[in-house]
Amino acid sequence: MAISRKRIGILTGGGDCPGLNAVIRAVVKTAHHDYGMDVIGFKDGYEGIIENRYMHIDPKSVSGLLSKGGTILGTSNRADPFNFPVLQGDEYVYLDRSSQAVLNFESLGLDALICIGGDGTMNATAGMEDKGLPVIGVPKTIDNDLVGTDVTFGFDSAVVTATDAIDKIHTTAQSHHRVMIIEVMGRYAGWIALHSGMAGGGDIILIPEIPYDINCVCEKIRDRTAQGKNFSIVVVGEGAKPIGGDMVVAKVIENSPDKIRLGGISHQLAAQIEGITNIECRVTILGHLLRGGAPSAFDRILATRFGVEAVHMVAREDFGQLVVLKNNQLSQVAIQSVSGKQRLVDYDHPIVKTALSLGICLGHPEDISLEEYCNAIVPSNKIKFE
Ligand code: F6P
Question: Would the CB of 141 count as within 6 Å of ligand 1?
Answer without folding.
Answer: yes
